[in-house]
Amino acid sequence: MTAGAPNRSPSHPGPSHAGPGAGHLPVMVEQALADLAPADGEVFVDGTFGGGGFSRAILEAADCTVWSIDRDTEAVDRGARLATEFGGRLTVLEGRFGDMADLLRGQGISAVDGIVLDLGVSSFQLDDPKRGFSFQADGPLDMRMGSDGPSAADAVNSLPERELARIIYEFGEERLSRSIARAIVSARAEDAIETTAALAEIVRRAVARRTGQRAKGRGRARLDPATRTFQALRIYVNDELGELARGLCAAEALLKPGGRLVVIAFHSLEDRSVKSFFSARCGSRARPSRHQPSLPSRGTAREAAPTFHLLHRGMVRPSAAEVTRNPRARSARMRAAIRTDSPLEPVA
Question: Can you tell me the mean pLDDT for 268-297?
Answer without folding.
Answer: 74
